[in-house]
Amino acid sequence: MCGRFVLTADGEAIKRLFRLADLDARLFVPRYNIAPTQPIVVIREGDRGREAVPMRWGFLPSWVKDTAKFPLIINARAEDIRAKPAFRNAIRRRRCLVPASGFYEWQARGKGPKQPYFIGPTGMGTLAFAGIWETWIGADGSEIDTAAIVTVAAGPPLDALHHRSPAIIRPEDFDLWLSGEEMTEAALDLLAEQGMATDLVAVPVSRRVNRAVDDDPGLIEPVREDPAGEEEKKAEEAPQEPVQQRLL
User: Fold this and answer.
1) pLDDT at 226
2) CATH 3.90.1680.10: does it fit domain 5-237?
């Protein structure tokens, strides 16, 4: 799965990579611990061309009546995305890309605490996760744009850390993934072509990433692996600050 990720690229870099005519640079402040339900930046085809827009990370199908009773959906499995009622319309008509500088994954260590890893491209480039989006409309007419990241079975070497990983779309395939309903099957073929992630590097990082309140460059710095969990114990004993989400 993908439960936390990082985006540190500035607006100009995003504009060039995704070939955007314009964007709001205020959307692109460095973020090192993006968590579910927070706003994320999504690239989609709009009425006036390709655009970067903020959305809630937590997919809500348009037919949901009571959001309090609907489970939080942050990922959509590629293998059954066409069959799931929640995703059936979005995968055909509302595909998007989610810019990221990397993501976190946690490796199980027997009965001990899991070790987090930061996984990113060599040279700290920018990735594009496959995504889907939907606009949820409340009974009072309010609208919320929401998104989920598509995941696939992890290939080597990432499968040694976790069995799932985000589906990554290459720049030469951006047009196809963002295309309309008539190209759905060809776009889905991109998900089946996910293979070895040889251009990604995984490094152990601090367990501070477990706390959504922590959001700083130190989270992606390599650390000595801590199988005993001493670092996590110290973090839990430290004074807690309230979580302040950035509103994009």
Assistant:
1) 65
2) yes
